[in-house]
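anyone seen this seq b4? input:
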Amino acid sequence: MAAATIGAAAIGGGVIGTMPALTSAGPDVVRAADALDSTALYNEAQAKFAAGDVPGGLASLKKAIDVAPADAQALALQVVWADQAGDAATGRSALRRLSLMNPALATTARNIVDGVANAAAIVPDVSPKAVSGNVAIVVLGYGLNGNGTMANELVRRVTAGRAQAELTSAAPVVVTGGAPKKGVTEAAAMRKWLVEHDVADSRILVEDKSGSTVANAQNTAAILAGRGIRDIVLVTSPNHIRRAAADFAATGLRVVQTVTTPTELSKYAAPLPKERQSGIRLEATRTARIPATRTAGIPLPQNLPDPGPGLIPEIGSKLIEILGTGSSN
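predicted toks r here
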C-alpha cells in the first residue's frame, strides 16, 4: 500500500488524500479532505510556463510537489524554471532531491539549465572553428521550395557546413530535416549538394525523419549515440542558433562550437538576456521529453521492486520510463 501511494505520486497520476476517521457514524462519515490530483497542478504549471508566467508556474509546481513529493518530473521542472526566475535556493533544493530520486533526470535538468545559459551567450559567427576529439558537424535543415529544391538560406547553411567539414576533415557530417517536397527531404537535398561539392558521401549521416528543431535534436542524438559521439559543431542561421543549441544540449549532446550563415548577423550580436530566455527554455524541456501535459490516473507498472528503505531512489528511473511525452515545433 505504501509503495503504491509513493509510486503513484512519483508519476503524477496518483491521488492522495486523507482517510476518514473510523467512527460509529457509518454512512455519515465525512472525509477530512478531498483527494488532490498532482497531475492537474503539474499541467497548470506547464500551461503557465508556456504563457510566459514563470512565477505562476513555479507556484503551481510547488503545490504539485507538496501533494506528491516524489514527482520527479515536477522537481525537474522546478530546477529548470527556478533558474529562469533567479531563485538559486529553490533550484538547488529541487536538484538535491531529484538527484537522490532519479539521477538520470537530475542530469537532464542540469543539461537544460547549462544548455540554455550557454546558448543565450552565443554570438553568431560565420567562421569555421578548429576542434579536436571525437566530434560531429551537425547542419540543420530549412524548408525546401515547393519543387523540392533548396531555398537560399538552406544553401547558405550547407555552404557553412562544408567550410567546417573542410577544416575538420575527420568529422562526420550530419544533415537533418524531413518535411519532403516532391518526394525530396531537406536532408537528402543537403546530402546531394555536399557530395557535389566534394564532401565524401561516406562522411555524411542522414537524419530525414524530423519536422522540427525538437525532433532534429532528438533524432540526431540517437544517431550519434550509436557512434559514441557526444560533442558537436552546430551549423544553422543566426536567428536559429540559440534555440537549436539549447535543444541539442537538452538531449545530452555538447555544443562545443557553432557556425552560422551571414543572414542578419548583426541583429543577433548581443547575447540573449535572462528575461528573453523563457522560449528556448520551454522548448528545451520538450526536447528532453519532459511532458507538456500528463493524463491523470496513469496505472502503476507491475514490475516495481519490493518496498523498503530505498524505495524512492530505486523506483525513480523505472517510473520515468513509463511516462508519455510529446514534442512541439
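DSSP finds twelve helices and seven strands in the chain. The beta strands are 15-16, 36-37, 135-139, 173-176, 204-207, 231-236, 254-260. kinda curious what u guys think
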